[in-house]
Give the backbone structure.
Amino acid sequence: MRKSIVAALATLALFPTQALAWGSEGHVLVAAIARARLSPAALAKVDAILAQDHDGSTPSDMLSRAVWADIYRRDHRETAQWHFADVEKDHPDFDAACFGHPSSAGPASTGPETACVIDRTADFARELGDPDTAMAERILALKFVLHFVGDMHQPLHVADNHDRGGNCVLISLGSARTVNLHSYWDTVVIGELGTDARNILTRLSAEITADKAAAWSVGDLASWARETNAVALGTAYSFATQPRCEQSPTPLTFPKGYDEAAQRAAATQIERAGVRLAVVLEKAMRPLNIAGLSPAQ
Ligand SMILES: [Zn+2]
């Protein structure tokens, strides 16, 4: 496992983190936590599926593939809305944020275009664990699941204040450094957890006690998304901001204690996401057998 993590972390430098959701580092941390928790049987199946994927846009290991959906989105704008659920702060309606839960006919990778991250994660997890899914589609389903469980735990991917999930709120970080609120939660706060991703991983993994893991494994995608939304309202949107998309924004300054609370919340969300990604993968891999995974279709 360690070799794989080191290799994946080394590849992070290849990705421009700014445009990525939940930052590439956040996704890799989530995948690394999940990978360490998978049973040998589930891990072997995950790796067997990934071994048949020859897409060159990221390295082919599990941790690197957790970032793939953000790369894919650049040339596949029809998948852009799948990464979040705009649950409005002033009118929290998950059904509306998920466009009334449209059903997908045919392979999940073909749509629908307007669907939220919660439903898309469910669609791809179901498809991933279906023995009848064609290998090419199973590979896509796995890569979307690896990514979307992470996105579902980024607070500003499951909350909105008419500000495009914080993209329109400019924050001053001092010394003339400004960043929008969404980017702060995607990358800045993760960077503040430490300079060495391996050290961060060791620390976060150590914080996951058996009791916490058991508690976090309860529930489903919908309840986990509600919890993420609560983190957004309680922490990310814990200061009064007005929607700022239609005006030239003046940078806001965080209230005292915001940054520390954000770091704690982000660390916990990554830990939860890692535990839950393992739960989702474990369940999806159970009905599959290795022999049934080849040949590639
Ligand atoms: Zn994403």
Summary: The chain has 13 helices and three strands. Strands lie at 170-172, 178-180, 252-253. Residues 28 and 140 are 17 Å apart (CA to CA). Residues 21, 69-70, 83, 147, 151 surround zinc ion (CB under 6 Å).
